[in-house]
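Notes, p. 3: input format for complexes.
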Amino acid sequence: MHLKITTLTLLIIALAGCYYDNEEDLFVPVAVGGNTCDSVAVTYTTSIAPIMTNYCTRCHRTGRTDGGVNIAGYAQLSVYVNSGQLLGAIRHDRGFSPMPSSGTRIPACDLQKITTWIAAGAPNN
Ligand code: HEC
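Output follows (125 residues plus heme C):
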C-alpha cells in the first residue's frame, strides 16, 4: 500500500512537471496593442494609404519611381489595382515582381486589409 502511494505521488509530480513545461512552451508574448487585426473596417484613407506609406512609396512616388511605378495617391494606385499588379506583387504571385523588393511580405493583417479593400471595389473613401 505504502509503495503504491509513493508511486502515485511520483507520477503526480512527474505529470505536474510536464504540465509546467508545457505551460512555458505555450506562452506567447502579446504584441503591444494586442494581437487583433481589424481587416473589416477598411478605407483607403485610414488603412491603405498608410500601408503604402509604410512599405512602398519610398520607392514608388513622384520623384522616385522604381520600375517606372508610382503608387502614391489614389489615382496612381488605382492603375495597379486594376491591372492586378498590386495584389500580384504583394502576394508574391508567380509572374509578378515580389514587393516590397526586400523579399519579405508585408504583415498578413495588412495584406488582408488590401485584399478586403480591393474586393469591395477599391473605393476612394
Ligand atoms: C526598395 C525599393 C522598393 C520598395 C520598398 C518597393 N518596391 Fe515595388 N518595385 C521596386 C523596383 C526596383 C521595381 C521594378 C523592378 C522589379 O520589377 O523588380 C518595382 C516594381 C513594382 C511593381 C511592378 C511589379 C510587376 O510585376 O509588374 C509594383 C506593382 C510594385 N513595385 C509595387 C510595390 C508595392 C505595393 C510595394 C510595397 C508593398 C513596393 N512596391 C515596395 C522597388 C521597390
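Confidence is low (pLDDT under 50) at residues 17-34.
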